[in-house]
Specification:
By secondary structure, the protein is α/β, with parallel strands linked by helices. The protein is built from seven helices and twelve strands. It has two domains: 138 residues, NAD(P)-binding Rossmann-like Domain (Rossmann fold, 3-Layer(aba) Sandwich); 105 residues, Dihydrodipicolinate Reductase, domain 2 (2-Layer Sandwich). Helix 1 crosses helix 6 and helix 4 runs parallel beside helix 5.
C-alpha cells in the first residue's frame, strides 16, 4: 500500500484528490499539509512540511507556488518523490525544479489529464504539417477563481507547437494596443475566465478557406486528481530525474 501525503489538502483539488485516493485499493493518504489544520479528515494535517511526522512514499502537491522551496528541500533531504501539480511557477522556480530533480524523483506537468496529452500530440502533428500555411490560435477557458492567465496548460501547448515550427513561431498575448496585420509567425493566446468552467483548451488552425480545431474539455477536476495519483504511483522506485506525462504514458 503506497502512502501518499497531500500538500494543499484543504483546497478544492486537495479534497478531490483525497476523495479519489479513498476509492482506490493500491494507495492511501497518510497525512496532509495545509495552513488550515482544523479539518474533518481522519488523517493528520500539518501546517508545514517541517512538522510532518509520517514518512510518505510520495507527496502530491496542489498548494501554491510559494510552497515550492520547502517541498524541494524535503524531497532532496529525504529522497521522497514529489508530484508537482501546482501551476503558476516563475521561470526561476522552474529552474529550481530542474536542479532539484538531480537529487530526487520529481514529476511535473501543467496538466495531469491523459486527454490533454492527446491534444498536445495532435497539435504538434498539425503544427508540423500546417504551421507555415495556417494561422495558429490557442483559446483557454477557466472558472472565475483561477488566478494565473494564461493557464499553464496553454503555455505547455504553445511551447510544444513552437518546437514543431520552422521558422519558429512566437506567442502574442495582447493585440488590443497594436494596430497591424497578424504575422504568420504569431501564435495568438486568449484567456477566458468565468463561472465554474473546469477547463477548456482549444487549438485553432485557420488557413485558406478552412479551419481545423482541436479541443479538450474537462467536466470535472477528478480527471486531474486521477492523473496525479497515477503519476505518484509511477514515481515509486524511480531514479532522480524530472518526469512528465510522456514518461508515464510510455510505461502504460
Amino acid at each position: 500500500m503506497t502512502k501518499i501525503a497531500i500538500s494543499g489538502v484543504c483546497g478544492h483539488m486537495g479534497r478531490m484528490l483525497a476523495s479519489c485516493i479513498a476509492d482506490r485499493a493500491d494507495c492511501e493518504v497518510c497525512c496532509g499539509i495545509d495552513l488550515n489544520t482544523e479539518t474533518e479528515y481522519k488523517f493528520p494535517v500539518y501546517d508545514s512540511i517541517a512538522k510532518m511526522q509520517e514518512k510518505p512514499d510520495v507527496i502530491i502537491d496542489y498548494s501554491h507556488p510559494s510552497c515550492l522551496s520547502s517541498l524541494l528541500e524535503y524531497a532532496k533531504s529525504t529522497g521522497t518523490p514529489v508530484v508537482l501539480a501546482t501551476t503558476g511557477y516563475s521561470e526561476a522556480q522552474l529552474q529550481q525544479i530542474r536542479e532539484a530533480s538531480q537529487q530526487a524523483a520529481l514529476f511535473s506537468s501543467f496538466n495531469m489529464s491523459i486527454g490533454i496529452q492527446l491534444l498536445l500530440a495532435l497539435s504538434k502533428k498539425a503544427a508540423a504539417v500546417l504551421g507555415n500555411q495556417f494561422d495558429i490560435e490557442i483559446i483557454e477557458k477557466h472558472h472565475n477563481q483561477k488566478i494565473d492567465a494564461p493557464s499553464g496548460t496553454a503555455i505547455m501547448i504553445a511551447n510544444a507547437i513552437i518546437g514543431e515550427t520552422d521558422p519558429q513561431k512566437h506567442v502574442v498575448y495582447d493585440r488590443h494596443s497594436v494596430r497591424k496585420k497578424r504575422e504568420m509567425t504569431e501564435i495568438g493566446m486568449h484567456s477566458i475566465r468565468g463561472g465554474t468552467i473546469v477547463g477548456e483548451h482549444e487549438v485553432l488552425f485557420a488557413g485558406p478557406d478552412e479551419c481545423i480545431s482541436i479541443k479538450h474539455s474537462a467536466s470535472s477536476k477528478r480527471v486531474f486528481a486521477e492523473g496525479s495519483v497515477n503519476a505518484a504511483l509511477f514515481l515509486i522506485g524511480k531514479a532522480p530525474m524530472l518526469y512528465d506525462m510522456t514518461h508515464l504514458l510510455a510505461e502504460a
